[in-house]
Write a structure and sequence with these properties.
By secondary structure, the protein is mainly β. The chain contains 2 helices and 31 strands. The chain has 5 domains: 43 residues, no CATH class; 108 residues, Immunoglobulin-like; 82 residues, Immunoglobulins (Immunoglobulin-like), CATH 2.60.40; 88 residues, Immunoglobulin-like; 86 residues, Sandwich (Immunoglobulin-like). A 5-stranded mixed beta sheet has the order 11-17-16-13-14, with no helix packed on it. Strands 5-4-7-9 form a 4-stranded antiparallel beta sheet, with no helix packed on it. Strands 21-20-23-24 form a 4-stranded antiparallel beta sheet, with no helix packed on it.
């Protein structure tokens, strides 16, 4: 009983896999009874390897085919007799180099078979034979070659925009077979060799896509194809080349005038003036106290020069300049900065004498260079209410100062500052102190 059940199970398995092309390994189904194996081989199953070719069995005739993109319908004629059991369909395998059984049809009245899940625009070869109830098969029919159709046209008229800011717009014509399309696959490439999937569009009526994942100056090749609901790919569209608008050219040539009194003058050459597709609306000036870091926007101007007023003497500043066009695009910062500095203050006056004479304070200092046109004396003291006071005596043209405004029991402190021809003060002299008793 167990052997009988094993035989029935194997028969069911074989019937369900009638299109199998593999040789059956009977060792998997061995039982303790050799009689069971013999009984299994005696069953009239048409795809076992012990079927014998009998030229007296009629071969199917009038073999023809009707192809579509993914299917081929085979047709044939046959006059069965009482011993005919059905037909066997073979397809040529490029991998093995021989015809492989793909289907067994256990119906003598069947004259049609549809081979499905094929590739479009591909040539296939078939043979058909008949088999009998007593395990005999006819000579296979002559080979029939038939190609699946390639009825889907390629998407057409793909164009890509140029000079958009950080984006490229793709446009194409409405696909003629859009009702068959499940989705479009957009691809892009830098070199037309390696393509990356960019976007999947599940709208068959769509005729536009905007690539927004771009930077200024990016350039790509684009193409796309459609995929039908049954998984058939259309040919690729034409390749379109698109690029984003590049930023203005970097400004390299920046000239500076240093050692000016509390100002720095900059000028530059703009390489963008020859670009007729844009015009420069302004220039941004970036400054830093360091040579190669921490540059911040300091000012803007529409001219090709700039005067930076700096309320410090001897201040060193680093500069970079960028151009901004009518699209709002700004050129990159040039890696190298230019350095400039304001005029440094002169050395401090040197006091050589100070004394109290007849109730007056007299201070004298060494003459300075011709660049110093006048002096200033700064006087500090505390009033009787201990309030600090400071007095400045300006426009002193000599190298001596006499202070008549003094009172007893107070301490006065003095410093001398020179003023040069540009109005820049020197460093203050050392501070002297005189106590009036």
């Amino acid at each position: 009983m167990k052997n009988y059940l094993a035989i029935l199970s194997l028969i069911s398995l074989l019937l369900l896999s009638g299109c199998s092309t593999k040789r059956i390994d009977f060792s998997k189904y061995r039982t303790s009874s050799d009689k069971a194996i013999k009984s299994l081989r005696d069953i009239k199953i048409p795809f076992l390897n012990d079927l014998k070719v009998d030229p007296s069995v009629k071969t199917p005739t009038k073999i023809s085919a009707t192809p579509s993109m993914t299917e081929i319908a085979l047709h044939w004629s046959y006059q069965p007799d009482s011993n005919t059991a059905g037909y066997r369909i073979f397809r040529y395998s490029e991998h093995s180099g021989r015809y492989i059984l793909i289907e067994t049809i256990p119906d003598v009245y069947a004259t049609n078979y549809v081979d499905k899940n094929l590739k479009p625009n591909k040539l296939y070869k078939y043979k058909i034979s008949a088999y009998t109830k007593d395990k005999r098969v006819s000579i296979a029919s002559p080979a029939l070659s038939v190609a699946t159709k390639y009825t889907l046209p390629a998407p057409s008229s793909l164009v890509a925009s140029k000079n958009y800011i950080q984006k490229t717009k793709l446009n194409w014509k409405l696909y003629s077979q859009y009702k068959l399309i499940k989705y479009y696959q957009i691809q892009r490439s830098k070199d037309k060799v390696k393509w990356e999937d960019l976007e999947t569009i599940y709208k068959s009526l769509q005729t536009q896509y905007i690539d927004t994942r771009l930077k200024n100056g990016d350039a790509y090749y684009y193409r796309f194809y459609g995929v039908t609901y049954d998984g058939v790919k259309t040919p690729y569209s034409n390749i379109a080349y698109g690029y984003t608008k590049r930023t203005p050219l970097v400004i390299k040539d920046v000239m500076v005038r240093s050692n000016l009194p509390r100002k720095i003058q900059l000028s530059w050459i703009d390489p963008n003036l020859e670009d007729k597709s844009r015009y420069i609306v302004k220039y941004n000036i970036y400054t830093s106290l360091f040579r190669d870091k921490l540059f911040i926007k300091h000012a803007s101007t529409s001219k090709k020069y700039f005067i930076d007023n700096i309320p410090h003497d001897g201040r060193k500043v680093y500069y970079k300049v960028t151009a901004v066009d009518n699209f709002g695009l700004e050129s990159p910062l040039y890696p190298k900065a230019v350095m400039a500095n304001t005029k440094a203050s002169s050395m401090a006056p040197k006091i050589i004498e100070y004394k109290l004479v007849d109730g007056r304070v007299i201070i004298r200092w060494e003459p300075m260079s011709r660049n110093i046109r006048k002096y200033e004396v700064v006087k500090r003291y505390y009033s009787k209410f201990f309030i600090p006071k400071t007095l400045n005596y300006t426009d002193i043209t000599s190298t001596q100062f006499v202070d008549n405004d003094i009172q007893l029991k107070r301490t006065y402190k003095y410093r001398v500052i020179g003023i040069d021809n540009d109005g820049i003060p020197t460093k203050p002299s050392r501070e002297i102190s005189i106590e009036i008793r």
